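Renewal narrative, Specific Aim 1. Our central claim is that a sequence can be written position by position from structural information alone. The example that follows is taken directly from our test logs and has not been curated for this report. It begins with the structure tokens describing the chain, in the order in which they were read.
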């Protein structure tokens, strides 16, 4: 384990005939300022610049696509005789968001039906209309199902645990009985919830 993996392995090859280099090759190798580490650093810099340029190209392409999509999605309804502008990518891809939204079969089920379904320009909004929308949203939130109240046994176990932890702030392990009591009460509450949800 110690030094076995840390030493680089060296291979020595014995040639059948002597290998000779010309003096010009030997001189150029000895006088060259380039070493293995400088070549590796140069290669790393080339790779990094290539990756950066590719990322920049992808980012520019994505921002152009996003700008095209945002321009095609407007708050005003399109006129019956005009089609929304589409990017070249969305014309090719029939599963894109723009082609889906511009489809004649698309229906927005979240919007109310009837004459109130048409979006109003932002300039027509008054303080009263905004207040009315806020009140409608509050009524919807209030009509949603409320969380069940915690049972008094769980509340009592929680209070006794908190009280014990406050009195034994230097020795919290002394409150193991209160912790176990709290766990059993919460377990009962979980079982009841699972039985209600399983119906």
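The sequence written for that structure reads:
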């Amino acid at each position: 384990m110690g030094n076995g993996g840390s030493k680089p392995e060296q291979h020595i090859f014995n040639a059948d005939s002597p290998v000779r280099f010309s003096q010009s090759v030997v001189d150029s190798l000895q006088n060259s300022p380039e070493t293995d580490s400088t070549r590796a650093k140069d290669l790393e810099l080339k790779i990094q610049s290539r990756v950066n340029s590719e990322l920049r190209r992808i980012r520019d392409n994505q921002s152009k696509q996003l700008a095209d999509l945002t321009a095609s999605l407007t708050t005003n309804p399109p006129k019956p005789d005009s089609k929304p502008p589409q990017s070249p990518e969305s014309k090719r891809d029939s599963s894109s968001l723009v082609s889906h939204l511009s489809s004649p079969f698309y229906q927005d089920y979240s919007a109310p039906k009837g004459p109130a379904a048409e979006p109003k320009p932002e300039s027509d909004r008054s303080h009263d209309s905004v207040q009315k929308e806020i009140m409608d949203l509050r009524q919807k939130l209030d009509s949603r199902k409320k969380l069940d109240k915690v049972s008094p046994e769980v509340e009592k176990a929680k209070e006794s645990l908190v009280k014990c932890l406050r009195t034994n702030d230097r020795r919290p392990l002394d409150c193991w009985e209160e912790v176990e009591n709290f766990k059993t009460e919460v377990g009962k509450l979980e079982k009841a919830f699972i039985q209600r949800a399983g119906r």
